[in-house]
Each structure stands twice: as C-alpha cells, then as structure tokens.
Amino acid sequence: MTIETALDDRTFTKHESEVRSYCRDWPAVFDTAQGSWLTDVDGNRYLDFFAGAGALNYGHNNPVLKDALVDYIVRDGITHGLDMSTRAKGEFLETFAAKILEPRGLDYKVQFPGPTGTNAVEAALKLARKVTGREAVINFTNAFHGMTLGSLAVTGNAMKRNGAGVPLVHTTPMPFDNYFDGSVEDFAWFERVLEDSGSGFNRPAGVIVETVQGEGGVNVARPEWLRGLADLCKRKDILLIVDDVQMGCGRTGEFFSFEEAGIVPDIVTLSKSIGGYGLPLALTLLRPELDVWEPGEHNGTFRGNNPAFVTATAAINKYWSDDALSVQVKAKGMEIAQSFEDLCQRHDGLSHRGRGMVQGLAFDKPELAGRTCEIAFSKGLLAETSGPDSEVVKLLPPLTMSSEDLAHGLQILSESVDEAFAADTAPEEAEA
C-alpha cells in the first residue's frame, strides 16, 4: 500500500522522538540534493554550508561516486559482508594504502570497528587500554568524540554528558590549546603531575585530541602545541589518539588534519567523509605493533559496508591522486576567513578562527549566532552553530563547492549578520 499525503512538520512531530534537533532549526522537508544544493518538497532551494556535519565533503550525489555505486548495485555486488573478505573491501584497502598512507609515510593497519565515528573512538580507547594495561585517558576541554558511553566520557559538553545517565569515569579533562589565552605554559603542568608521586594522577593509557574542535566552537590547536603534546606522549609512553572524524578527509586542506603539525599519532579515527558519498563507514588506524586484538574481540554487524567501500575508493581515486583538492580547500578557506574578517571589522563583538574549509565566526552575544543562522535559513542557506553556548556560526561547506556558490553563500551570511546586529541594536536606538 502506498501512502500519499502532503508532508509537513506535523508528520515528524507526531511520529518522531523529541530528540530530533537539526530539523527544528531548518523547518523544511527536504527531498533532493545535488552538489552544494538541497531542494525541499515545495521546490525551495538551499545552499549547503553544513555538508552533513562534514560527512559530505564531496557534495550531495557526487556523479563520479554515484556512478560507481549504481554500477556496483546493478551488478549485485556484496552489500553486507561483516568482516568477510570481499572485492570491494580489498580494492578500498589497496587504494587507501597506495594513495593515502604510503605517500605520507604512514604505516597503519586498518580496523573497521562499525560504521560511525563513535564506533571508531570506542575501538581506539579500548585498544589503548588493552595495549598499555592502564585505564585512564586524557581528553580536552570542549572536546566532542561521540555519543556512546566511552566516547561521551572523553567529551566535554555538559548537556551531552548528562544524557548518559551513569557516571562517566576513567578520564581526566585537560585544557585545550589557548584555553587560558596563553597565560599558562602548555604542558609543564601535565609533565609535573605525571612525575610527581604525590599528585594522585594515574599514568594514562592514552590522550585523545582533535586538531580542530568543530563541535566545541572551531577551536584550532597550534602546530607547535600539537608537536609538544606528541613529544610528551612519546617520552612518557602514552598513546596519542587523533580524532579526525570530522576534520579528516581534506577538511583542513591536507587529507589528515595532523599533517600540518608534522606529527604521527599512534591511533587515528576516521568516519563521516571517508565513505565519500555519505554512506556509513569508519576506520580506526593503528600502528602495526599495537594490533593486539583477538579475533572478534571488537566487532560490529555493519563494519563491512561494501557500498561505502566502493564510494570511498572512487573518492580517493578522484580527489586524492594529486594535491589539486588540497590547494583549492586552502584557497577557499582563505576566502571564507577574509569574509569573516570583513564582518569583524564592521561589527564589534565578533571574532573568527578556523583552518581550511572549517571556519567559525564567534559572537560575544551567543544569541546573535543563532539569530544569524535563522535569518540565513530564511534566505536559503544552511549553517549551524557550535561552541559551549552555541556562540559560533560554524561553516562546513562541501570541499567541492564552486567559487560562485561559495561567494553567494558568504554574501547571504554577511547580510544575515548585518540584520542580526541591526535587530539587536534597534531597541537601544529607539530608547535613545
């Protein structure tokens, strides 16, 4: 039986859980998407500065990836394979090694832990504890690593942590780069408590870090800070885990976000855009000597998402056979940063930060960030807020967005910021 009805918000309000979030900020019923644009059931078009929270680095329904996927499905290629050996997985592994790992001098084994970022993080945390025999993990203020219990334990956001319903233990939060505005020497405190037998601080199994904290407010770690962290971990026999779920796959310019700092983490987590097409896929990368898993000791029913292997392979072949995409991402990132700088010059109470095509516009008045995104949506642009008080407008456009679309979106955002500030100052002017 086919149900024919006009879809609107009532359908979702009636049937779907109250936990839904993005749809509250973008009250439209989306139907189709191509490249950097989405279209709703009423034919309205929206430019996407969100890209599936970074899962669509190559845009919606990228034709190269779509063709590879359709061909695979039509020929009855394996869809679900657990961790069985399949042609699709083998071709992905060979391509990933040849075009991503080997050119960067990286010698990682690849684990498929389950199809989402939090699965990759859980595997990384479990492995660090198994290898070292220690329990504690160091995480950082304003970090976000996922919504399952282990990942939540190393996440900073209080609202998300409160959803756990149980104590989140065996982790210790430390200040991220510039948390104290440079007033505290970065790692002297960390090294001191590690060496002090009276500190009560247990030597950790690992440290987990994002090079750019997207959900935390687009907080960018300096290369020298990351190098200092990596050096300390190496000297103290602590495993360094870089969470590249959102910032990997070219988001900051290089394929891995840690490349700029010249460090080599012990473990790396990837998800979101590694599947290329928006299909679920996650990887936990680990140094070969850390591969101490027993067969089946960590697994997941959907860790063998073969259609995602196909689109991931197509994406790597298309976009990572040379450095053209990296160059474009850095150039577009500079365009966004310049637009944000112009806004900061025009309005008090604004600042900006970011790397590549993850950029944040921070408001001293958090409510203006939300108001800016609301106005932008009314003008046909999707952008979200981030940060502990939702005070940052965070841009994550598809890396493949055209220069024309990028300029169009930045113009909409500029107008939206102007209108948000104008509405905020209007009552004061009226009183005067």
From TrEMBL:
Q: Which PROSITE patterns match?
A: AA_TRANSFER_CLASS_3
What name does the UniProt record give this protein?
Answer: Diaminobutyrate--2-oxoglutarate transaminase
The family database entries (Pfam families) matched by this protein are listed as: Aminotran_3
Gene name tied to this protein: ectB
Q: What is its EC number?
A: 2.6.1.76
Q: Which domain of life is it from?
A: Bacteria
Q: In which pathway does it act?
A: Amine and polyamine biosynthesis; ectoine biosynthesis; L-ectoine from L-aspartate 4-semialdehyde: step 1/3
Q: Does the keyword Plastid apply?
A: no
Cofactor(s) the protein requires to work = pyridoxal 5'-phosphate
What Gene3D superfamilies does the entry give?
Aspartate Aminotransferase, domain 1, Type I PLP-dependent aspartate aminotransferase-like (Major domain)
Alphabetically ordered keywords of this record: Aminotransferase, Pyridoxal phosphate, Transferase
Gene Ontology molecular function: any one: diaminobutyrate-2-oxoglutarate transaminase activity
Q: So what family is this one in?
A: Belongs to the class-III pyridoxal-phosphate-dependent aminotransferase family.
Query: What does the record list as GO biological process?
Result: ectoine biosynthetic process
